[in-house]
């Protein structure tokens, strides 16, 4: 199985649109995972049929037993996250603020606090026109994105590990969800855009990826909106020995495709669709050549 993550240094680069189109173009059997768990929207262009939903239990949080509590206030005094509230002399933990550090269990003189598992999201398993899709929903404010990304990947590999290809729609940024996404993948495709911030974020995300040693490939979306910034991205990729393998032009057909809920490559031979078809062929060539630079 080859594992590819499509990522971006920031949101709004067209990463999900590219992932959806690639899912229809890359050859072999395929399982899809939407690891952008804070804003999962791959399903919007895949029309999935939901097969099952499983609860996601995030980290444990503290729970106070009011019958055992002697109202000493030690837990409130020692919680550095302000997660213990007092209401009418009753102490209780706000699960949205609890960071699971368990300090309150150590300081409670009455043994009234226990750490309990809490459902912070759900993992969905669906069928699409091109294979199974694992996607998720995180309870707002839960803050377990990295753990949920790990659970989404694990679910995909356990249920569809026999597929030829594991295609991941990754999160934007360089934080914990990204690290969880790219660990163990063979290649990352960074989708960026021709702007000052696009190049800046590209540099940051590539620096993180290099710690995990997947092959790094780059595609620039809407490249023709700023040719001078495009030249800077090309020069930087050349200097860093990174394969810039895709140039997708600005194309109103992309917006029409998103509105219709399908990948742009399903709507005809628009310029963006043609560029992504070429990108898919190049990805397969890159991944079949083990001697290319990482
Ligand atoms: S587990 Fe930590 S963060 Fe949560 S209530 Fe107890 S002390 Fe506060
Ligand atoms: S430390 Fe224990 S006994 Fe004291 S207020 Fe908190 S829960 Fe109640």
How would you describe this structure to a colleague?
The structure is a single chain. With 294 residues, the chain is of the alpha/beta class. The chain has 2 domains: 2-57 and 123-287, P-loop containing nucleotide triphosphate hydrolases (Rossmann fold, 3-Layer(aba) Sandwich); 61-117, Alpha-Beta Plaits (2-Layer Sandwich), CATH 3.30.70. The chain is built from 9 helices and 13 strands. The chain has helices spanning 15-25, 74-78, 103-107, 145-160, 176-182, 196-210, 227-239, 252-260, 271-287; strands at residues 2-8, 30-34, 49-57, 61-64, 84-87, 90-93, 113-116, 119-128, 131-138, 165-172, 187-192, 215-221, 243-248. The protein has a 9-stranded mixed sheet, sandwiched between helices. A two-stranded antiparallel ribbon has the order 4-7. A hairpin with a 2-residue loop joins strand 5 and strand 6. Helix 1 packs across helix 9 (271-287) and helix 4 (145-160) runs parallel beside helix 5 (176-182). It is elongated and about 70 Å long. It starts with a strand and ends in a 7-residue tail after the last helix. The model has no long low-confidence stretch (mean pLDDT 92). The structure holds iron/sulfur cluster (2 copies).
